[in-house]
Design brief:
The complex is a heterodimer of chains A (115) and B (113). Chain A has 115 residues and is mainly β. Chain A has no helices and 11 strands. Chain A is 0% helix and 53% strand. In chain A, strands 2, 4, 5, 9, 10 and 11 form a 6-stranded mixed beta sheet that branches. Classes of the chains: A mainly beta (115), B mainly beta (113). The interface between A and B is medium-sized, with 26 and 26 residues.
């Protein structure tokens, strides 16, 4: 079945350090991989996404890499700041091209950035 | 552009009652999806709609239903509420069924007593 595994479940880093969160998906037909940040009591916010025809994408301090062969994708945050503290969710879908927009989510990573 | 809006933001119901939640997508967006978020199960897909048609349904009992109107607004209904239905219900909108990027609303926090 469709499944996305996410690790670690909690991550504590010092301000200025880098943070890496990893996800593995099971459905090889998945072609779209977004990352959402959810602060306590707020909506999930899209922070970056990647499509299956791209291996890496970067937006300022945030980058995502995709390894289709291994069915792995990762979120990299550099120069972390206290405001990066939140729960991060990875997701996978077949939405690129229109099969469905259904997102299969990972279980989330609680990132704590210590000042 | 205004973001995705959901009403009400909070609801308290008792077991056996039914509830209707509403979602207004971003202006110009025609696809709406619904998700249930709980501490134990995480974020789980409920259903998705496009052009007033349900395109896909998640693994939830028939007590969960939804619909989409001609203006793209969507509602979901849960009948015969159970304690386990307590959750944050999130809707997400995307431009159309062939567009992958989805934006979430603030959610409706449902508590079943």
């Amino acid at each position: 079945g469709e499944n996305v595994e996410q690790h670690p479940s909690t991550l504590s880093v010092q301000e200025g350090d880098s943070a890496v969160i990893k996800c593995t998906y099971s459905d090889s037909a998945s072609n779209y991989f977004p990352w959402y940040k959810q602060e306590l009591g707020k909506r999930p916010q899209l922070i970056i996404d990647i499509r299956s025809n791209v291996g890496e994408k970067k937006d300022q301090r945030i980058a995502v890499t995709l390894n289709k062969t291994a069915k792995h994708f990762s979120l990299h945050i550099t120069e972390t700041q206290p405001e990066d503290s939140a729960v991060y969710f990875c997701a996978a879908s077949k939405g690129y091209g229109g099969a469905t927009n259904k997102l299969i989510f990972g279980t989330g990573t609680l990132l704590a950035v210590q000042p | 552009k205004a973001g995705v809006t959901q009403t009400p933001r909070y609801l308290i119901k008792t077991r056996g009652q039914q509830v209707t939640l509403s979602c207004s997508p971003i202006s110009g967006h025609r696809s709406v999806s619904w998700y249930q978020q709980t501490p134990g199960q995480g974020l789980q897909f409920l259903f998705e709609y496009f052009s007033e048609t349900q395109r896909n349904k998640g693994n939830f009992p028939g007590r969960f239903s939804g619909r989409q109107f001609s203006n793209s607004r969507s509602e979901m209904n849960v009948s015969t509420l159970e304690l386990g239905d307590s959750a944050l219900y999130l809707c997400a909108s995307s431009k159309d069924f062939h567009t992958d990027t989805q934006y979430f609303g603030p959610g409706t926090r449902l508590t079943v007593l």
